[in-house]
Amino acid sequence: MESIWMKNVDFKGRSALPGDLQAEAAVIGGGLAGVLTAYYLQQRNIRTIVLEAARTGGGQTKNTTAKITSQHNLLYARLLKNFGEEKAKQYAQANEGAIREYRRLITANKIDCSFEELPAYLYSPDQQDVPSLEEEARAAKKLGIHAEFVSQTSLPFPVAGAVRFDGQAQFHPLEFLQAIADELTIYEMTPVRTVEGSRIITDRGTVTAKHIVFAAHFPFINMPGFYFARMHQERSYVLALEGAAQPDGMYLGVDAEALSLRGFKNMLLLGGGGHRTGENKAGGKYAFLREKAAQFYPASKETAHWSAQDCMTLDGVPYIGKYAPSTDNWYVATGFGKWGMTSSMAAALLLSDSITGRENSFAEVFSPLRFTPAASMKAFLSNSGQAVKGLTRQTLLPVKADIENLPSGHGGVVEWGEEKIGLYKDEQGEAFAVSTRCPHLGCRLEWNPDEKSWDCPCHGSRFDYKGTLLDNPAQEDLETSAEA
User: Fold this and answer.
1) Of 54, 58, 69, nearest to 3 (Cα)?
2) What pLDDT is stored for residue 3 in this prediction?
C-alpha cells in the first residue's frame, strides 16, 4: 500500500535521458539526498543533472516517517566512546545544522510542506533502560544539543524515562522535494547500469561528468568501495491512524518493542516491527502494530500502511564523501540508518562543499574512507554471483504439486535438487515461480509474507512475487518461468 505522502502529491513527469550528453556534475538517484545535492550544486553554478531509475521521490523518500531530528536513537554516548569528543561533536553539529538549514530553506522559499517544530523523544517503559537514557541525555548535552532527561510524556502509557531533544521538526517530505526539484534537470526512467571513470552508462545513453555522486540508497558498484561488505539493510513498518490522539512531539522507543510515533494533520503514524531485511519468515509485523493500535488507540481507524528500508553501516555513521581512494571524481551518500532526513541534508551540504572546493568541518566523521575491507573481499565478490541459475521447465515440473497445495495469497520455498524455487499463488489462484538466488551476489532470498516480496538477507535487495526488482543493490529482475 502507498504511504500517505503519495496520496496528495503529483510530481510532474520528467522525460528519460534523450541520448549521450555532458554535464559538470551528475547525481545518480532522485530521492531527497540526490535532489538536495543537485540543488546546492546548481545554486553554486555547477551545471548538474539527476538520473533517476523510476520517478523522482519514488524510492525510500516516499516511505519515510519524515522526522527532521538530530536525535538518532541511543547514539551520542556510543559516538563519544568510539569516535571521541571531536568527531562526535562533528556528527551532532552536522545534524543540528541540517535542521536549521531545512528551516531556512523552507522559510526563504515559502515552501508549503507542513513543516512543524516539535521536540523529539527517546523513551522506554522499562526501568532497566533509564541509565542508558540518562547517559544519552548527558552525552547529547555535552556535544551542544539541547537535551534533557524527563519522566513525563504525552504517550497513552507510562514510561520509566525519556530523553527530550528541543528544536527538532517534522514535515511532508514529498511536498518539500517537489518544490526543491522543480527547477532541476532530472531524467526519469533512466536506470544506470554501470559507471566507468567519468562515464555513466544507461540504456538511454551515456552521460560524461566531471563529478559523479552516488545517491541511489545503496551503492550498486561493488568495486571499488565494497559497500556490500560495509552495510546491511533493515525494514520497518508503519500504520496511519485517524482518530488517534496527537502526541506533543516525535517519539521513538528504545525498549524491545521500539515503537515510533508522530502526528500528521488528523493522523498518527505508528511505526515499528523492525528487522534485518530477509529475516521475516514468520511475518506478523503489521499485525503487531495493529495490536498496539487497538490497545493504545482503540477509537482509531487505519487509513494506510506501508514499509521502509534503511541502510545500516558498521559503526552507525553514514558514509558521505569520496566513494573510494582510487576514484577522485566519485562521491557517495549512503548508510543513513533510520535518519534519512537530516542525513540527506548533511550529505548535500557536505558533498556540494567538497565538489566546489570548500572546506566542510564535518567531513572527517562521515568519511567513507574510515573503513576499507581487506583485499580478500575481491575473491569473495568474484565467486559469489556464479551460482545464479535460471528456471526451466525441467526444474518446475516436479514442484507442480507444491504449487497446487499452496494456499492462495501465500508464498514459500521448495527444493529441487540443489536449487530452491520461490513460489507464490495470488488471490485468484495464479502461481508465480522465481529463482531464489539474488542476482547481485548470489545470496539466497527469503520470503517476506508481510510485503509479499523476496528479500535478500545479505545486502537488502528486494523483488516482488513476480520477480520484479524493488530495491537495490541488485540491478536486474529475478529469473522467472511462465511454466507455473
Assistant:
1) 58
2) 94
